[in-house]
Structures are given as C-alpha cells and as structure tokens.
Amino acid sequence: MSTRPAARGWLGPYFAAWLLPAALLVALLAGATSLSFGAAAALGLPLALLLAQLCLTAAYLTRAFPLAPAAGRLARSLLAVTAAAVVTCALWVALGGLWAGALAALAPGFAALPDGYSEAVPPLFAAGVLLYLLAAAGHYLAASLAASRSAERRALEAQVLAREAELRALRAQIDPHFLFNSLNALAALTGADPPSARRVALLLAGFLRRSLRLGERAAVPLGEELEAARAYLAIEQVRFGERLCVEERIEPEAEALAVPPLILQPLVENAIKHGIAGLLDGGTVTLEAARDGGGLRLAVVNDRDPEAPAGGGEGIGLANVRRRLDAAYGRRARLTAAPFAGGFRAELALPAEELEPAPAAGAGIGPGEGR
Q1: Can you tell me whether residue 8 is helix, strand or coil?
Q2: Using CA of residue 163, residue 167, residue 173, residue 177, what is the dihedral sign?
Q3: Cα separation, 182 vs 365, whole angstroms
Q4: 244-250 and 283-292 as β-strands: parallel, antiparallel, unpaired?
Q5: Is a pLDDT exceeding 50 seen at residue 345?
Q6: What does each C-alpha distance from 135 to 93, 122, 138, 190 come to in angstroms?
Q7: Rounded CA gap, 264 and 273, in Å?
Q8: Which domains does the chain have, with CATH numbers?
Q9: What is the pLDDT of residue 296?
Q10: Residues 368, 173: contact at Cβ < 8 Å?
C-alpha cells in the first residue's frame, strides 16, 4: 500500500475519516468558550479541514524518518515527528486566529469569535498535536504493512526461483546417464551386429533431436512422455531382441494430462537395467496410465529374477524422481517402488492437471540412473 497522499483512491477515505475529529473540534470550541454552536462550527469545520491538509505532511516525514531500531535512529525519528507536530500545530492555531478575525470582519454576528478563539487556543493546540501524531502513527503503520507485504512477495519469488532452478538441475542430471548407457549399447553392437548398431544410432539421434524440443518445458502431455519411453524402449529392443517385450495399459483420456518431462524415463531404465537385463530369457516391461479420481496414476512394471540379490537401497534414478515430484508438487504427488513375486513395480501418483499439447512437440529427454 502506498503512503503517498496524492495517490488516487486514498484521499477520499482519508478526508472521510476526519469527519469525527472535525465534530470533536467543533464540540471543543463550543464547550471551551462562550461561542454558540453555529459560530463554533463556522470556525471549527474549516480549521479541521486545514488540519487534515497539514497532517498529510506526516506521510513525507515518516518516510524521511523511519522507525529504524538502530541506535539513536528511533529517538531521532520520534523527536523529528514531535517537533513537526508542534511547529505544524503552532502554524495551524495562528491561521485559525486569522480565520476568526476574518469571520468577525465579514459577519457582524461573529464579532465575538476572536475573543472566544483566544480562550480555545491551548486545548486546540493540544488536540492538533495529538491528531498530527495519530496521523503520523497511521502512516508508519501503513509503511510497515507495505514493507511486510513486499518482503513476503520477495520471499515467495525467491522460493519459486529456487524451485525452478532445482527442477532444471534435476532434469539436466538425467541426460548424461542416458547418453552414456545408450553409447555403451551402441559400442557393444558395433562389432557383433553392425546393422543393429546403425539402427540404434539412428534411433538415438531421433530420440535426442526430439528431446531438445522439450528441454525447456516445465510440463508435457503424458502422450509425449509416453512417446519418449517408447523411443527408449525401441533402442533397448534392438539390443535385447526377443528378450524384451513391451506391453501398454494406457487409458486414452489420460494422455492429455500434464506430467513433468522425463519423469518416466528413470523408471523405464530401471526396469531394463535391474529387471530384464538380469533374466536369461528376458521378460516384459509394462507401461500403465489411468485417471484415478482427481489424480493420475502411472506405473512401470517389469519382470525380475526373484533370486537376484536385493539392491543396497534407492539409487540416483528413483531419488531423482522423488526430488522432482517434491519440487513440482510437494505432498500432492508420490512415488512408490517395491518388488513383488517375480517382478518390480514403480508407481507415480500425480495431480490430474489438463495441458494442451504443444504443436509439433516430440518426446521427453532420456532416462536417469538405476535405483
């Protein structure tokens, strides 16, 4: 809230608030002198309007002398405001005497105004000082509220920027691992199966080209994220051949919902690295997506050797997904990952948020590391 007295929409309520002080000043003049109520009103109402104008200077004064807690500054500010109140009200009562003389000269019925006003000067001066100090306190309060709101806004902006930076860092963490793993697969095929190696190279080039189109987006339609997962699985199918089967259980209406880019890739890579790669006869990776009330449920399920030793905890891939979900959604999203008899299931629960697909957009960026 601005404390500038000239701000539009501010002066109306300000002067309306002076109706009560004006009535009190008129009552003071009538009660402290022998003036009639009409004479007191003719003298007091213009004086109240004049004091309201003079109290506007408190807005500038409070900005020049803020109530800082530093040593000496608080006392200096209070002294400056008090001195301004005394000087301003001394000028005010002096102008009031001129106004009383002018009324007496213009209207014979007000001939007693100058003498009556002289009687009321001390209480008027005290009341004026008090009103000026109250006006200054109001300006200090308004400035404090404005500073508090500004600090809250800056804190929220800093929080948003920090969260965006964290999301960018987490997304950037995924790319090198996917590229590293894909190049290893390409190198393994180069000598044993050159045609397959060439196919992997072409698939990888197309995958990375599509990835660049999504790198700067905060969210993508699930359909595009699924295309990214399919592209990755196509690369792995060249390497694993018939050992890798892919199944999908995707509700069509879920494909337009928004998801963070790359969010499925670490889960799909885990399914290959820690599931299919450990099975002599291979196995199946299943992608699932469905609306669940007001949420979206995504899952990657893979076959797994039940005799394989349990991992030593959650690795970079799943930890990356958890941190991204926390940064993007807080407690509104979660990841659950656990083995079952002969397999492993990683499931995401996200808010179901609509997002229009970007035109000519490709798939998401590559996967993260294993668990």
Answers
A1: coil
A2: positive
A3: 13
A4: parallel
A5: yes
A6: 18, 20, 5, 83
A7: 14
A8: 11-157 (no CATH), 193-351 (3.30.565.10)
A9: 96
A10: yes
Residue 72: φ, ψ to 5°: 85, -30
Which stretches within 241-362 are classed as H helix?
265-273, 316-329
Residue identified by tokens 């500073």 is 147
CA distance 184 to 140: 67
* Greatest distance between any 2 Cα atoms in the chain: 120
How far lies 284's CA from each of 204, 254, 267, 268, 347, in Å? 22, 22, 14, 11, 16
Please tell me the distance from the alpha carbon of residue 187 to that of residue 224, in angstroms, as a whole number: 28
Token pair of 71 as six digits? 């040593």
The answer, yes or no, to whether residue 163 has pLDDT greater than 80, is: no
Which pLDDT score, from 0 to 100, does residue 187 have? 82
Determine the pLDDT at residue 361: 42
Query: Residue 283 has what pLDDT?
Result: 94
Side chain identity at 25, as an amino acid letter?
A: L
Query: Which value, to the nearest 10 degrees, does the dihedral of the CA atoms of residues 316, 317, 322, 325 take?
Result: 130
Q: For residues 165 and 262, what is the distance between their CA atoms, to the nearest angstrom? A: 16
Look up residue 81 and give its two tokens.
Answer: 């405001």
Task: Judge whether 136 and 61 are in contact, CB under 8 Å.
Answer: yes
